[in-house]
Amino acid sequence: MSERADIASLTGEELTQVVLAMGQPSYRARQLADWLGKGIWDLQAMTNLPASFLKMLEEQTYLPRPVIERKLVSTDGTVKYLFRFADGELVETVLMNYRHGTSVCLSTQAGCRQGCAFCASTLGGLNRNLTASEILAQFFTAQRDSQCKISNIVLMGTGEPLDNFDHTVRFLQLVNAPQGPNIGMRHISLSTCGLVPQIRQLGEMGFPLTLSVSLHATTDELRDRLMPVNRKYPLPMLMQTCKEYFAKTGRRISIEYVMIKDMNVSKQDANRLLSLTEGFLSHINLIPVNYVEERGFHPPSEGEIKEFCELLRRKGAEVTVRRKLGNDINASCGQLRHSCQKEQKKG
Ligand code: SAH
User: Fold this and answer.
1) Best mutation site among 189, 193, 284 for ligand 1, i.e. most ligand atoms within 8 A of its Cβ?
2) pTM for this structure?
3) CA of 313 relative to ligand 1 center, distance in Å
């Protein structure tokens, strides 16, 4: 597959070059780009292209067309897909219906190598990066299957988007393109565990998307244990990078904070969280940890959650507790993929 051209990952200009190299006139590139931009990644459906060109495309190019391995529909309308790519890799995609539109949560890697202690996505390590077209294929396949017009995208599925930087940036450009899905950058959130050099690099690009930083701890001591990435890029460095990112882009940063019982929801944590987020505009998203069997972390009680949230709010933080969607279908990242892999191993 690797020697075939991944044409759905190409920009218009690059696609033209490939098509010209195949001995075709440039208007064929525009016709092909039209199909690709609409998400019709099926050569047989491209009825305005001549058979000889289609044959070349068939032999020389690759279009990811994931099959729906599993589909779970929650009582609240959330749909969770497990997609399988041609090489057998499984990837999770979640569609969420809100009053203000439909959001999709996309995966950027098959697996993850960050090793966060509470997360199901990283249990089997990283299998491989997804290409831009494979990230985009999740968008189109979910949209087509659900017949919902997707208005928002969150890169919060399996994987660390900034560990797959080039493909992720390319995906952002493709999904934002007017001849493609045309999703505005302001409708896209990208979540990172805190890869400092790549956050800087993203800031340089100046996309007006929302950067979400998974913080989850207020001391280096705890964050080192929960998120190994912290040993490389500790809190002072990460928060300084957030300040710089905000100064550069003017975009409010979303701070994700997974709440774990008896671990990170004390009064001191609330106060430290407030000081850490000084110096830039932020919105704190509190997420009661989802219980993952292999991990054993429990969420705090409803009372504790409320108290922690109120404490932050009283001191002036912008804070919300994330509404839980799709609870009945294991909708948090990595859980379905992981349970399916476990089943497959059992045979
Ligand atoms: N790698 C990126 C994006 C993927 S995870 C990142 O770390 O931000 C999306 C969010 O879900 C992250 O904030 C992650 O820390 C959080 N998450 C992972 N496991 C979780 C669990 N068991 N319960 C609640 N949130 C979890």
Assistant:
1) 193
2) 0.95
3) 23
301-312 pLDDT, tens digit per residue, is: 999 999 999 999
Q: Is 292 in the pocket of ligand 1 (CB under 6 A)?
A: yes
Mean pLDDT of the chain: 94
Distance of CA 12 to the CA centre of its chain: 24
CATH hierarchy code of domain 67-346: 3.20.20.70
C-alpha distances in Å from residue 151, one per residue of 25, 99, 146, 148, 199: 35, 12, 13, 9, 25
CATH 3.20.20.70: which residues of the chain?
A: 67-346
Whether 106 has a pLDDT exceeding 60, the answer reads yes
Q: Are 280 and 243 in contact (CB under 8 A)?
A: yes
Distance (Å, whole) CA 84 – CA 148 = 21
Q: What is the pLDDT, as a whole number, of residue 70?
A: 96
Q: Residues of CATH 1.10.150 domain(s) within the chain?
A: 5-62
CATH topology of domain 5-62: DNA polymerase; domain 1 (1.10.150)
Can you name the residues that pair with 153 across neighbouring β-strands?
A: 104, 188
Ligand 1 neighbourhood includes 290 CB (under 6 angstroms): yes
Residue 88 · residue 163 · CB < 8 Å? no
Tokens of 263: 């671990």
DSSP 58-112: HHHB-----EEEEEEE-TTS-EEEEEE-TTS-EEEEEEEEETTEEEEE---EEE-
CA atoms of 250 and 243, how far apart (whole Å) = 10
Annotated catalytic residue within 92, 134, 160, 256: 92
The pLDDT of residue 286 is above 90: yes
Distances, alpha carbon 242 to alpha carbons 87, 96, 197, 198, 286, in Å: 37, 28, 11, 12, 18
- CA-closest residue to ligand 1 atom 4: 156
CB 263 within 8 A of CB 223: no
Give the Cα separation of 74 and 325 in Å (integer): 8
Q: Which of 96, 51, 11, 170 is nearest to 329 (CA)?
A: 96
**Annotated catalytic, 333?**
yes
Per DSSP (E only), the strands in the chain are 67-73, 79-84, 90-98, 101-105, 109-111, 126-129, 150-155, 188-192, 210-214, 253-259, 282-288, 319-321
